[in-house]
Each structure stands twice: as C-alpha cells, then as structure tokens.
Amino acid sequence: MSKRKRDAGPWYPPEAYGELAEGIQRVLIPADRIQERVLALGREISVDYAGRCPLLIGVLKGVVPFMADLLRAITVPVEVDYMAVASYSAEARNKGMVRLEKDLSLPITGRDVLFVEDIIDTGLTLNYLLRTLRTRDPASLEVCVLFNKEQPRLINIPLKYKGFDVPDLLVVGCGLDFRERYRNLPFVGLLKPEVFQADVED
Amino acid sequence: MTLTTFARTQKGHSILSTLDPTPPAFAHPSEAAFARILDYYDIDWEYEPRTFVLEEDASGNPLEAFSPDFYLPQQDLFIELTTLRPKLIRHKNRKIRRLRELHPEINIKLFKRRNIRDLMIKYGIDDEARKILGQEAQ
User: Fold this and answer.
1) Chain A contacts of B132, Cβ < 8 Å?
2) CA-to-CA distance for B51 and A87, rounded, in angstroms?
3) Which stretch of DSSP H or E encloses residue B47?
4) Which of A124, A125, A134, A169 has the highest number of chain B CBs within 10 A, making it the mutation to test binding with B?
5) Whether A202 contacts chain B with CB within 8 A
6) Are A173 and A186 in contact (CB under 8 A)?
7) How far off is chain A from B49, nearest CA to CA, in Å?
8) Backbone CA torsion sign across A108, A110, A116, A122
9) Looking at beta carbons, which residues of chain B come within 8 Å of A127?
10) Which residue among the candidates A7, A48, A112, A121 is catalytic per the annotation?
11) In the annotation, is A121 catalytic?
12) Cα dihedral sign for A28, A33, A38, A44?
C-alpha cells in the first residue's frame, strides 16, 4: 500500500494534536492500521457469532473509542453494556477490594458475552471482572482486546480476539491515557519519558 | 534441590490474623506495595516461599541460593521484583537464568524497575512510585 493511500483517512495527522502530539516520542501504530485491524476483528466476530446476539461488555473509560469502532465493524445483531471500576485510590485501598462504580444494566445469564478491553497488561483487573461475570452464568464468555502488553502479565487470560501486541512501554492514544489525557489520539504513541518522569521521578 | 524457608499466603495470613497479625517482613517498600495491589485484586500470594539452591560445593553445601519474592499459587508463577537500574540487574538476570536451567518447569517473571514504575503510575500511587524509585537497590 502506498504511503499516500495509507495516509488517506478520516483522521488528522499526529501534528494536528498540538500539545498532545508534543508529548509523543513517536507514533507506534498509525490510525489507519488500527482501523484496518478493528475492521478485521469485527469481521471475525461477525462470523463466529453468526445466528447469535452477543452482548459486548466494556469497562469505562479507556474502551470507549475501541468499542465505538468495533461495534460498527460487526455485522450481526449485538447489544452493548458498560461497567466502571473504582480506581486504585487511597480510599478504594482502605476499603480493601475492587469496587464496581457502575454495574451492568443488562442481565447476562444465558447470554453470549464478549468482554471488550482496550489493553491488557498485568491482567489483574480483567481477571477480577471475568470472575465476577462468571458467577452470573453467561452461556459463553470470551475476551477481545485491542492492545496486548505481554511482558507484565501476572494472570494468564485466554484472549479470543487480539488486535496488536505492544511493547512494554508507556503507550497512549486510542483510549489509553496518562493522567486522563491522550485518550483522543487516533493513533498509539510512545509517551516521551520527560512527560511522566517529571511527574513520577522528580 | 529446594529448601522451604518461609511461607505465608494472603489467605493463610487472614486465617492466622488473630494469632499473628504481623505482615511478612518485606525487604523493600516495592514488595509491600505489590502485595497490597495483589490483595486488592483478591489474588493469593506467598512471600518468599521457596529458596532454590543454585550452586553447591562437593559436599552438597549450598554456595548460592535464590528466593524469588512472590509466588502466585493460582498462576503457578514466581515473581522477582527489582528496583535496580537496568545496568545493575545483571546478577539478578543470571540467577533467574540459572534457576530456569536447573528447574525448567518453574515459571518465573522478573518485574523490573520500569514495570514497577508503570504499575504504580497505572494504579495512581505516585507517592509510592517516588518512594520506591528514589532507592537504588533492594
């Protein structure tokens, strides 16, 4: 594919993102590659779930851009629901365990559930949520992740659908944040060390 | 070629809490922070449950041994944490390499300084990240 064609797409170039782009060391996965991969995942899911109506579940907030794109890439009927988990704040730590800030609105008993995640690294949060969902007796429960960071994995979780393997570095964009920023970048970029070192290693 | 030294699972610790409320004597703050994260996500862990002898003399006396920091029984995974800077972790890599040679059935993962930093950033515990990364060695 020619560079011209690859560059063609609905997205602004990285430099258009101004101060956000200034925090990016380099683009790791361009927006058009992500879109192509999401379309391919959607096709795969549409074939696998033909004749069924899977319920796609995501965890707010990082999954929002991926979920929006994936939903539109799936051609069979689907339903969607979201959960939200309290961050690992001092308050949450004092309460001792993971707390759901928002539970599902739809029942999942007997449903074909596809858990959609933006990224998996340690697998701790995903493992906890999958355990919670399994107690509700879905007919099936599979996982679809856009980005897989393998190195820090602590919990082995089978991934039925996977977009990209990403290196063990701080990456942002496409829903992935640093201090709640950068989620709106349509590409995935490596964060400049000075951005987080200034905050963490000062 | 193994020697059991000390084991305290998080669940066991809860059961024994009335008898022995003391948490394991972690060698480094990063280990305590890591244990808290595992507790938060309800993952069973053991702290330094096994010591592996890496080298013996002719009489079978241990010359070198290695006790990985954590064991996650449900994952059958040992974890070694290090906050050493990358250029200083050669000896730790060597120990892990040797352990894998002697016990290919063992699953072990080295969590490096950067992994720990990223974990702390992810979980929003920058104060702990600063404390941990401010120290050069365990």
Assistant:
1) none
2) 35
3) strand B46-47
4) A124
5) yes
6) yes
7) 18
8) positive
9) 41, 43
10) A121
11) yes
12) negative
Cα end-to-end distance, chain A, whole Å:
44
DSSP H or E segment with residue B70 = strand B70-72
| pLDDT, tens digit only, all 202 positions of chain A | 445 455 556 788 889 999 999 999 999 999 999 999 999 999 999 999 999 999 999 999 999 999 999 999 999 999 999 999 987 766 666 667 788 899 999 999 999 999 999 999 999 999 999 999 999 999 999 999 999 999 889 999 999 999 999 998 889 999 999 989 999 999 999 999 888 776 554 4
Q: Which residue of B has its CA nearest to A201?
A: B130
Kindly provide the ipTM of the predicted complex, given to two decimals: 0.81
Strands (E), chain A: 24-29, 55-60, 79-85, 100-102, 112-120, 140-148, 161-165, 171-172, 188-191
Mean pLDDT of B39-63: 93
